[in-house]
Design brief:
By secondary structure, the protein is mostly helical. The chain is about 75% helix and about 0% strand. The protein has one domain. The longest helix is centred in the first third of the chain and has 28 residues, at about 70-95. The model has no long low-confidence stretch (mean pLDDT about 85).
Length: about 300
């Protein structure tokens, strides 16, 4: 049944897990660097999705790719998408070292606005509401991130770059996913991401086993709950919800990030930052307005 309350609640739970994962990511930076966190988290996500794959296959009524050309295409797609998510995740993780969880959640959600803007380079038409969403979101960034000396904070710059890169990653998945299994593509991109982060993690950060073990709870939460459980909830719920409603519910990730940052880490947004957060969220909602269907008389 479309728009069932049950599936709305499941997707809200998924958005809460994504939002609260920002707290786990921030806490993990107390023990290990961004390359190491992204590396280990990605391997955990790969394992979690591998274990969940039989359940997801039953839910979606799909089977593994059988033909050699299908497996080769999945590998090719995984390499491109894995590289994109690797760079985007690193910038997000690095940015969390210099800013609050709430600001990180709202700035990351800007990818929702950036995806339709970047798609213009793929020959797609941008609707009026997207341009308005960009203006509203940009004004939100001003209030959220511009400090008294009128300079964009370093951590916020990293997160804005991350939002841009996540938009690129989404468009990359959008390019490859129609021709392969999207869930397997997501699983394999985490594996590729983990291996790509491995060398810079070892060379630049030289993590110890003790430090990784100390960050075990944040890593497990980000890897299993955020990438495994929440992704499964998204798959189950989106099959039973209208796309516009599902997108709006998922964008609540930013609100939950701010709430969890306040409750768990005691990070308080200033009035100016709260106004900016509201404007960014309004821009995100504007970008997701459904297109009016034309009726034939």
């Amino acid at each position: 049944m479309k728009n069932s309350l049950k599936y709305q609640l499941l997707l809200i739970l998924g958005a809460f897990i994504w939002g609260s994962a920002f707290v786990a990511q921030s806490a993990g930076m107390d023990y290990i660097g961004p390359w190491t966190f992204t590396c280990v988290r990605s391997f955990i996500a790969f394992i979690a999705l591998t274990l969940l794959m039989p359940l997801l296959d039953r839910i979606r009524h799909v089977s593994p790719p059988q033909k050699p050309e299908e497996r080769r295409y999945l590998l090719k797609a995984s390499l491109f998408c894995g590289a994109a998510v690797c760079i985007a995740s690193f910038f997000q993780q690095a940015g969390l070292q210099y800013t609050t969880v709430g600001k990180a959640g709202f700035l990351t959600t800007l990818y929702v606005v950036l995806v339709p803007v970047l798609s213009v380079f793929l020959g797609r038409k941008i609707r009026w509401n997207v341009w308005l969403a960009v203006l509203v979101a940009m004004s939100g960034i001003w209030f959220l991130s511009i400090s008294e000396n009128e300079a964009l904070a370093y951590g916020d710059i990293l997160l804005l770059i991350s939002a841009f890169l996540y938009a690129v990653q989404i468009l990359t998945i959008d390019h490859f996913s129609p021709h392969t299994d999207a869930v397997r593509l997501s699983r394999m991109q985490f594996l590729v991401c983990g291996f790509l982060c491995l060398i810079p993690a070892v060379v630049l950060e030289q993590p110890s086993f003790e430090n990784i073990l100390a960050a075990a709870v944040p890593l497990l939460y980000a890897g299993v709950m955020s990438s495994g459980i929440a992704y499964t909830l998204q798959i189950v719920s989106q099959k039973n919800l209208e796309p516009a409603l599902a997108s709006i519910i998922m964008s609540l990730e930013s609100v939950f990030a701010a709430l969890c940052g306040f409750v768990i880490l005691h990070q308080v947004l200033l009035p100016r930052e709260l106004l900016g957060s509201c404007l960014v969220f309004a821009g995100v909602l504007l970008a997701q307005l459904p297109e009016k269907k034309q009726t034939v008389s």
